[in-house]
Design a protein that fits this description.
Bound molecules: D-glutamic acid
Helix content: 40-55%
CATH topology of the largest domain: Rossmann fold
Number of strands: 10
Largest sheet: 6 strands, parallel
Radius of gyration: 18 Å
Strand content: 15-25%
Structural class: alpha/beta
Number of domains: 2
Strand order of the largest sheet: 4-3-1-2-9-10
């Protein structure tokens, strides 16, 4: 018989709707689970905020999601992971799965020895990112390209606007010019514009996103904790922003309309 906790949803959070690219992979791998997705839209972008803010906010969100009855937590935001995953893990009663830029798989894949990483300013400046490069890619040339404004533009327009074209021209050109043959999508918003990024790179360049790896890791963690299964494939989407506005953006990105409810993490 399932323990009652098995029936609780898996909580997933991001600063906005980038984490939906991860959620897509999670639902594909674990179609029988229920998910509660939280977009902290009111505070998007995390990528330009101080570490102290992201850490405090991440810890509060994680604690509130646990109190709300989640059985596991997925941090579907690279920026929140590099800043706050350790403290969230230390404080959380739940299994916590987090994703970080795929520097390690990129180092195994590159043939040219040049790896591009597209991510937020905060992610690329973090100690954890520096460590990731030092541990796994020190023998390669790693071009860390910050993309300020890109996550917000994706939320504002969905893929395919002139503003995004213009931002990507500036962000991707240096990677192509340097001969990168693997480009890491180090922010969960960027898979929404993967095709636009690919068009700016020579044929054969690999774009790496970590959604599927996170899904496999979540499955392992749930199995190890005896928490696998027990849901019904239900999805609830919530945001700290204005539900109607967020709903319109979800529709553009997700490809179908999903109701969005308002939710705010509470104080303990
Ligand atoms: N989606 C987030 C990430 O993976 C960041 C976007 C933002 O700057 O809030 O890093």
């Amino acid at each position: 018989m399932d323990a009652p906790l098995n029936h609780q949803p898996i909580a997933v959070f991001d600063s906005g709707l980038g984490g939906l690219t991860v959620l897509r992979a999670l639902r594909q791998r674990l179609p029988g689970e229920d998910f509660f997705y939280f977009a902290d839209t009111r505070f998007l972008p995390y990528g330009d905020r101080p570490e102290s803010f992201i850490r405090e906010r991440g810890e509060r969100i994680a604690a509130s999601l646990a109190r709300r009855g989640a059985k596991a937590l997925v941090i579907a935001c690279n920026t929140a992971t590099v800043v706050a995953a350790e403290s969230i893990r230390a404080a959380s009663p739940l299994p916590v799965v987090a994703l970080e830029p795929g520097v390690k798989p990129a180092a195994a894949l590159t043939r040219s020895g040049v790896i591009g990483v597209l991510a937020t300013t905060r992610t690329l400046r973090s100690q954890r990112f520096q460590r990731l490069v030092g541990d796994h890619a020190s023998q390669h040339r790693v071009l860390a390209q910050a993309c300020p404004g890109l996550a917000e533009a994706i939320e504002r327009h969905g893929p395919g606007s002139a503003e995004i074209e213009c931002l990507l021209d500036a962000f991707v050109a240096p990677l192509a010019a340097a001969g990168a043959d693997v480009v890491v999508l180090g922010c969960t918003h960027y898979p929404w514009v993967a095709e636009m990024i690919a068009r700016r790179l020579p044929a054969g360049v690999t774009l790496l996103d970590t959604g599927e790896a996170v899904a496999r890791q979540l499955e392992r963690r749930l199995a190890a904790a005896g928490l696998l299964g027990g849901g019904q494939g239900r999805l609830t989407v919530a945001s700290s922003g204005m539900p109607a506005q967020v709903e319109a953006t979800v529709g553009r990105l997700w490809g179908s309309l999903l109701p969005v409810e308002h939710w705010e993490p509470d104080h303990a």
